[in-house]
Task: structure prediction
Amino acid sequence: MLGDHLGLKEALDKGFISKDVKRAIVHGNPDRVSEQAKLLKGAKLVAKKRGFITYVGEYNSAKIMISSTGMGSGSASIAIEELIEFGIEKIIRVGTCGGYLNEIKPGDLVVPTATLIETPVLRYLYPNYMHEKMLDMPKWMFLKDGFIFVEGFKEVYDKIIENLEIELKNQAGHHYFVGPVHDKDILHAWRPEYNRMPNELILLKNKIKQLTIATDMETGSLYTISHLRGVKSGSLLVVVDFFADQKTIGIQNNALNIAYNVSLKAITKT
Result:
């Protein structure tokens, strides 16, 4: 038994939620949980605990949970594990990312097919991962140029792409990209001006950029834990510039609205 950081067990005991909810959409940012919940029929706030919030409602006659994970591998892993223990069988992450390709612009969308992981989620796979060579990889992991990748779930990301293409037909100014992403461990440590060894960091970043198309901080945990626990998951990311002007912020917010709609359609059809 896990703890109840999300408050789902408490909500179940109080009758706020039932075990027949099997699909969940997760966000790092709890504010976005509240925004996307507006798209659900009969949305109810069922849990609010330790900064995590969870809504339940219906979309296309399917019961959907929308919950927050917090930022980074550690917090996301706690949330994902508790969702799965509750009984969730399909999860789609909606979040933000930084683009690595020159052609990727703020307001574009990224569908991760795999994730290059360097985060502590590796502890699930290799308890002494920082000091020992990693051997005997499961079939859903692979090595490329010395980096570890975890595969996504094709049936889920194909459904995300299918619905994204439909949604973008009526949305000018947005493009989408499909490929592996970099699961970043500590956000600001990847900024050369904050790192003790900036030149070495730049060399590492350049290697990773040749292998991935974007970077976020939670998709790696989602894919890894999903494989280990036998559930299906996907991820849909909006490319953002945290120093954007107001016009670009508007474009990014519109892309988030697109992601809200696409993720709901995709998770009810997989």
In short: Residues 8-267 form a domain with the Rossmann fold fold (CATH 3.40.50.1580).
